[in-house]
Design brief:
Elements lengths: L1 H24 L19 H4 L5 H13 L4 E4 L11 E5 L4 E7 L7 H14 L4 H9 E6 L4 H5 L27 E2 L3 E2 L27 H13 L3 E8 L2 E2 L5 E2 L1 E4 L4 H6 L3 H23 L6 E3 L9 H7 L3 E8 L4 H23 L9 H4 L15
Parallel strand pairs: 3-4, 3-7, 7-12, 10-11
Antiparallel strand pairs: 1-2, 2-4, 5-6, 8-9, 10-12
Zinc ion binds next to loops.
């Protein structure tokens, strides 16, 4: 398993780099410093095994499909390394819901959370899971960025995966949100235009999108027309005004200027409210854990971000950023929070209760502190 050893080594150097960035940007000593011990935040190789490699994820999902628990297929487009992105479908109900995770290759604990959620919804004979499968068609993409997670490549500076971007060392048009010699930030390239192939930053023909993973997610969206869309990420370490660790941040679409340009301001306002109801369900789900401390994500209005693009297209759309990168305990927490919030949301959509979810939860949400702000954003 040479590739696994390589991944582990690069992970620790990545964490060291992240610690340097966080230290340079920190304006207070309150934030808990990320661990920089040799071996990285997950300690050793065996603890990283909680996150499936590309091959392992496909094998695990294939076993579930062989048992008839899920439908498994590759996404409509492959990654640039010619790898298939696994797409899981559970249930056959009339209401479509879509959850995606790990668009950023180095934010991979949420992919484990999605694998747990798949097990929970597909492999469970209880009445709750049955209601979800009867009333919903759930599509889960546990790892959008298969190349950025464990593609067997190095970038122009000699870095190995995992990293944030996909793999695409050359750029032909626009070159926004692109790291030279490495690749694109997938979560800036979701088309909200007429076709999945529109490049959000280049005028002209709707054929200039160079990010296959984003095109694939939008193509799936077109096929499914999900009522609710959720996108899971990690963020760095933050504390609130009381010095308490922030365990996650949440946000709904906010590309209001783009909606006005498109002449859909009224529809978009309704979409924001629907998104906030879905976010409310997720917040209440983690509220039952004493240690959850969720704030509003300080979001930009960039329309090509999944949260905004799918909101502009009419889905209730939620971004959930989980605290990440500081130790094994945190890793388990991230995975668990992703699966719990996903499960409770699916339950609430299946029984219809999400449509009347309490918006005061959203009105009262606090802003995230910016002590160790990550400049890269979602
Ligand atoms: Zn991210």
């Amino acid at each position: 398993m040479g590739s696994r050893r390589r991944t582990t080594a690069s992970l620790s150097s990545l964490v060291l780099a992240a610690a340097v960035v966080a230290g340079a940007q920190g304006t207070t000593a309150q934030a808990e410093p990320p661990e920089t011990t040799p071996g990285g935040p997950w300690g050793d190789e065996s603890s990283l095994s909680g996150v499936a490699s590309y091959e392992q994820m496909w094998a695990d999902l294939q076993r579930l499909e062989d048992r008839g628990a899920i439908e498994l297929e590759p996404a409509p487009l492959q990654s640039n390394l010619g790898r298939d992105i696994p797409v899981v479908t559970i249930g056959d109900g009339p209401t479509p819901v879509m959850l995606i995770a790990n668009q950023h290759g180095n934010e991979f604990m949420v992919s484990r959370g999605m694998m747990d959620l798949i097990q929970q919804v597909a492999g469970n004979n209880g009445p709750e899971a049955q209601e979800i499968r009867d009333n919903l068609t759930v599509t889960i993409v546990p790892r959008v960025n298969v190349d950025g997670f464990d593609g067997d490549v190095t970038d122009a500076r000699g870095n190995t995966t995992p990293w944030r971007q996909n793999y695409d060392p050359t750029c032909d048009v626009g070159c926004n949100y692109w790291v030279e010699g490495r690749g694109y930030d997938i979560n800036r390239y979701h088309s909200y235009g007429a076709t999945p192939y529109d490049n959000p930053y280049v005028a002209g023909e709707d054929t200039l999108n160079e990010v296959p993973e984003a095109i694939a997610m939008r193509t799936l969206w077109d096929e499914l027309q999900p009522v609710v869309m959720v996108d899971y990420h990690h963020q760095g370490t933050y504390v609130d005004d009381d010095g308490r660790m922030i365990t996650g941040s949440i946000m709904w679409p906010n590309a209001t200027a783009t909606a006005e340009q498109l002449g859909i301001a009224d529809e978009f306002a309704q979409t924001i409210t629907k998104s906030q109801r879905a976010a409310s369900v997720m917040l209440q789900a983690v509220d039952s854990y004493g240690y959850a401390n969720i704030t509003r994500y300080p979001s930009t209005t960039t329309p090509g971000i999944a949260r905004n693009a799918y909101g502009l297209l009419g889905s209730a759309s939620v971004l959930f950023e989980l605290r990440g990168g500081i130790g094994q305990k945190s890793a388990g927490y991230i995975s668990k929070t992703a699966s719990v919030t996903g499960y409770e949301l699916l339950k609430a959509i299946a029984d219809g209760s999400w449509e009347t979810a309490d918006l005061s939860v959203i009105e009262n949400i606090r802003e995230r502190g910016d002590y160790v702000r990550d400049p890269r954003g979602e």
